[in-house]
Amino acid sequence: MKHTKESFYLKYEKLVYQFLWDYLKTEPDRVLAKDVLRELYSQVWVRVFRSFHKYQIKTDVHIKRSLRVTSQNVYFDYLKQQKREMERTVPAEEILQEMVSSDTIDTALFTVDRKKYLREAIKILNREERYLIWEYYFTDRDGKDTALYLDMNHNTLRTKVNRVCKKLRKEMERLMREGGDLDE
């Protein structure tokens, strides 16, 4: 069935809105989520209307599937953009400082008296490992959203985070065995 752009929009506007809201509903800041939703919603429709001729030959089921994929792609593009901005705005030194001053990671391991060892142990982590820890423990996203944001499988993310934490534990244990005074 041939649609005009207006009739097409009116028929599928709520569906696109729902697709995007499904991705954004876990955002802890509702005001931000609604602002992002409005922006992504308009981006979806821009993409759809750029290739509107392709939607003219599809069935209703195919149109809905295409709209979901387009919505998903717009959301993933948004996450990638956020990731790039985060990488540009948070230098490794700031990540290290936040990790040392926070009790978020394994509190049994990183008690206040062990922070000096943590500070030294963090120095052995490469940039990717520090960023991974930052994203996993110090952002407002849950594990699955963090994995999506980092463009990796959730189980892969958990495995990498566990390996980095294990690496930190071993380095801290080595430093504590060697003893000595570390500078605060």
Model description:
This protein has 184 residues and is mainly α. It folds into two domains: 5-82, no CATH class; 92-178, Arc Repressor Mutant, subunit A, CATH 1.10.10. Helix content is 74%, strand content 0%. It has nine helices and no strands. The chain has helices spanning 5-24, 30-50, 52-55, 60-89, 92-101, 115-122, 127-137, 143-149, 154-178. The relative contact order is 0.09. The model is unreliable at 106-110 (pLDDT under 50).
Give me a quick take on this structure.
The protein is an all-alpha fold and 184 residues long. The chain has helices spanning 5-24, 30-50, 52-55, 60-89, 92-101, 115-122, 127-137, 143-149, 154-178.
Characteristic terms for this protein:
184 residues, Arc Repressor Mutant, subunit A, 9 helices
Explain the layout of strands and helices.
Blueprint: H1 5-24, H2 30-50, H3 52-55, H4 60-89, H5 92-101, H6 115-122, H7 127-137, H8 143-149, H9 154-178
Helix pairs in contact: 1-2, 1-4, 2-4, 5-6, 5-7, 6-9, 7-9, 8-9
Helix content: over 70%
Instruction: Assign the CATH architecture of the largest domain.
Output: Orthogonal Bundle
According to CATH, what is the class of the largest domain?
Mainly Alpha
For the record, the count of structural domains works out to 2
- From the alpha-carbon coordinates, what is the Rg to the nearest angstrom? 22 Å
Largest sheet: none
| SSE sequence, one letter per element | HHHHHHHHH
Which band does the percent of strand residues land in? under 5%
Q: Ends: how far apart? A: 71 Å
Average predicted confidence as pLDDT: 79
State the helix count: 9
